[in-house]
Amino acid sequence: MENFFNWMTKPIPHDEVIIWFNIHNMNYEKIELYGDISKSLTKIISDTYLGENISETKIFLSDDDNKSHFNWCWNKMVEDFRKENIHIKVNGEHRDYFESFFMDTFYNQSKVSIKESIDKFLTEIFDTNMTYSKSDLDLLTELYKLMEKNIE
After folding, report:
1. pTM of the model as a whole
2. Is residue 87 within 8 Å of residue 151, measured between CB atoms?
3. DSSP-H helix ranges across 84-133
4. What is the rounded CA–CA span in Å between residue 55 and residue 2?
């Protein structure tokens, strides 16, 4: 249990984080780019989602509606970056990962506080100046490698 707790919370010294990035061939500019992609997708989803309780009407969307919304947001994000000459593959493990992430933490989430914390969470994971735990580094590395395989 103590090992798990340390993996989740114990801060990793910055010099060890640099070594981690080097071992995994992680480039700072790409970390920033992948963070921008994640934050852009989050913003599009949260700004355009109509399934919340709005004024007197209570609009609840089906799972199919939520998947359609995610697909539209994903395609818009890909197109927005394509306009900046950054080509992201439309389909792949990266898309599946983000779809699953947003279905769990946004679309199917009843707690507003969790929905509102997504942007902060993604900002911190991709912030190379933050103090990382081992679990943070594992997540960042997984996201980095997913994106790395799917940028054309």
Report:
1. 0.85
2. yes
3. 93-102, 112-125
4. 47
CA 117/CA 104 separation, integer angstroms: 13
| Cα distance between residue 101 and residue 98, in whole Å | 5
Place of tokens 């509606």: 65
Give the chain's radius of gyration (CA, Å).
17
pLDDT tens for the chain, residues 1 to 152:
566 555 556 788 999 999 999 999 999 999 999 999 999 999 999 999 877 654 455 666 788 989 999 999 999 999 999 999 999 999 999 999 999 999 999 998 888 888 889 999 999 999 999 899 888 999 999 999 999 999 98
Look at residue 11 and give its three-state secondary structure. strand
How far apart are the C-alpha atoms of 145 and 26, rounded to whole Å? 9
Decide the pairing of beta strands 57-58 and 53-54.
Answer: antiparallel
Alpha-carbon gap, residue 36 to 81, rounded angstroms: 10
